[in-house]
């Protein structure tokens, strides 16, 4: 499932390429035909991401809400203008001036996955993959089950497989966002920290479940959950109300940092203090990018204990029973 950093990257892509333009909207698949007909011809006026949800505003006080869920993705084709806050991602977030093209094992160019203006397709999702060059046909042919296509004169955005794709009024958008926990890139960071601390202090639910609850904190998914808990050396089964407040504050502050890294690099990089070669290896391979996620049966990078995997609220939880005891 796309986690918070991916949705913020997608929103920045929309802000750079779709906002300010009238769009032709269609639903090639047919499942959003009525909604597409309502926004067809309207101008996109703003966009915002909150946690795992994106809200695209159109003239006439109308919003499109998209939640990608487990399988959703946006594909962009045409002339793609890179958002400078992403295109300027430089080496290891300022730790080095190293530059260069780094493709991960799924084919993504981690540093320029949005890229300069070009005729190509760019997939914006958690499982980003390099798609083949397109021919000169415009608009590009529809490929697969496209729920919604938004088309400007030079840019095409195709939505596939979302959990939610619906039109909302401003009041409905506000109500949706009100149900979400704080997002470090949207809310005041200090206020968000205090809110998370107070909510978790009241909960008997395991901290490993609370971090995945979008009503507690927005944007954290399975990867970031496992990595944040390991980095805090926190047992995932501890009831939230029993986790010391300073530990919860540390997790929030770590989330603030990791989310920004994810937005700027396009990867859920959770390893610290890597050498330049180590950083490039981690950017190129997810196996080298995380402390515990997807490492079931392998030795802990810190203590050597076998990393465990178990089900927690229907999702796989990776953790070290020694470091996180």
UniProtKB/TrEMBL annotation:
Q: Where is the FPG-type domain?
A: 291-325
- Enzymatic class: lyase
Q: Which cofactor does it need?
A: Zn(2+)
Q: Which UniProt keywords apply?
A: DNA damage, DNA repair, DNA-binding, Glycosidase, Hydrolase, Lyase, Metal-binding, Multifunctional enzyme, Zinc, Zinc-finger
Give the source's domain of life in one word: Bacteria
SMART domains per UniProt: Fapy_DNA_glyco, H2TH
List where the protein spans the membrane.
none
Task: Please give the residue ranges the record annotates as the region Disordered.
Answer: 97-122
The EC number(s) this enzyme carries: 4.2.99.18
Is Plastid a UniProt keyword of this protein? Answer: no
- Protein family according to the UniProt entry: Belongs to the FPG family.
Name used for this protein in its record = DNA-(apurinic or apyrimidinic site) lyase
Q: From which source organism is this entry?
A: Microbacterium aoyamense
């Amino acid at each position: 499932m796309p986690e918070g950093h991916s949705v913020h990257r997608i929103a920045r892509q929309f802000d750079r390429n779709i906002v300010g333009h009238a769009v032709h909207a269609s639903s090639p698949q047919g499942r959003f035909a009525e909604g597409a007909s309502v926004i067809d011809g309207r101008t996109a006026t703003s966009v915002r991401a909150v946690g795992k949800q994106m809200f695209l505003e159109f003239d006439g006080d109308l919003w499109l809400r998209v939640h990608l869920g487990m399988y959703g993705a946006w594909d962009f084709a045409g002339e793609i203008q890179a958002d400078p806050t992403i295109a300027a991602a430089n080496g290891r977030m300022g730790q080095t001036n190293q530059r260069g093209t780094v493709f991960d094992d799924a084919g993504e160019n981690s540093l320029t996955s949005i890229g300069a203006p070009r005729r190509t397709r760019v997939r914006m999702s958690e499982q980003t993959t390099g798609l083949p060059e397109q021919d000169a046909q415009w608009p590009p042919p529809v490929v697969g089950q496209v729920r919604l296509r938004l088309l400007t004169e030079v840019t095409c955005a195709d939505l596939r497989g979302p959990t939610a794709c619906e039109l909302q009024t401003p009041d409905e958008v506000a109500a949706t966002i009100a149900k979400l926990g704080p997002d470090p890139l949207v809310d005041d960071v200090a206020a968000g920290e205090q809110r998370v601390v107070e909510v978790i202090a009241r909960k008997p639910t395991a901290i490993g479940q609370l971090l995945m609850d979008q009503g507690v904190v927005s944007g954290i998914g399975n990867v970031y959950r496992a990595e944040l808990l390991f980095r805090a050396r926190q047992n995932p089964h501890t009831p939230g109300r029993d986790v010391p407040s300073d530990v919860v504050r540390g997790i929030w502050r770590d989330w603030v940092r990791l989310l920004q890294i994810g937005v700027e690099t396009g990867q859920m990089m959770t390893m610290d203090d890597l050498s330049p070669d180590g950083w490039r290896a981690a950017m190129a391979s997810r196996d080298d990018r995380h402390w515990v996620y997807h490492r079931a049966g392998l030795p802990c990078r810190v203590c050597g204990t076998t990393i465990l995997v178990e089900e927690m609220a229907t999702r796989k939880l990776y953790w070290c029973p020694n470091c996180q005891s």
